[in-house]
Amino acid sequence: PPPTPLDLNAADSAALEALPGIGPTFARRIVAYRRRLGFYHSIEQLKEVYGMPDSLFRIAAPHLVVGGLTAAERLNVHAYSAAELGAHPYIGPALARRIVAYREQHGPYRSADDLRRLYGLPPERLERLRPYLRVE
User: Fold this and answer.
1) 34-75: pLDDT as tens digits
2) pLDDT tens digits, 99-112
3) Which of 13, 20, 67, 68 has a CB 3.0–4.6 Å from the CB of 27, allowing a cystine?
4) Cβ atoms within 10 Å of 8's Cβ, excluding its own
5) Would the pLDDT of 77 be above 60?
6) CA–CA gap between residue 121 and residue 91 (Å, rounded)
7) Distance between CA atoms of 111 and 54, rounded to whole angstroms?
8) What count of Cα atoms within 13 Å lies in the side-chain half-sphere of residue 118?
9) Rounded to whole angstroms, how far apart are CA atoms 109 and 131?
10) What is the spatial distance between Cα 9 and Cα 119, in angstroms, rounded to a whole number?
11) What is the 3-state secondary structure (H, E, C) of 31-44?
């Protein structure tokens, strides 16, 4: 029988190494990128791991799942500083400063859609970022 799929957000590097084609280097990179992101929301994000060839992604992906997440794991745009927001790979320092400046000028965000008002945030980048945001 096929092995039980591995939760990409819970697996340590040793568990990842057990997957076909994933050695110690990629296992460490997968875990390190998860730390930077906070969590994976899609198996497709493995393609963003440094050096991940499409051929290896196709081999590993069928053995992985993404477990459920809680709201506490998301970035609270009202509570985080520009430095904290800017550490996320999908935000960066420049966008983080704009998020905080807008919040300070206009008050709290009511929803993630309010971020559409930010200068220089294309809709596709907002959609990529949306799973990581918490607006309370």
Assistant:
1) 999 989 999 999 999 999 999 999 999 999 999 877 666 788
2) 999 999 999 999 98
3) 13
4) 24
5) yes
6) 10
7) 35
8) 23
9) 16
10) 32
11) HHHHHHHCCCCCHH
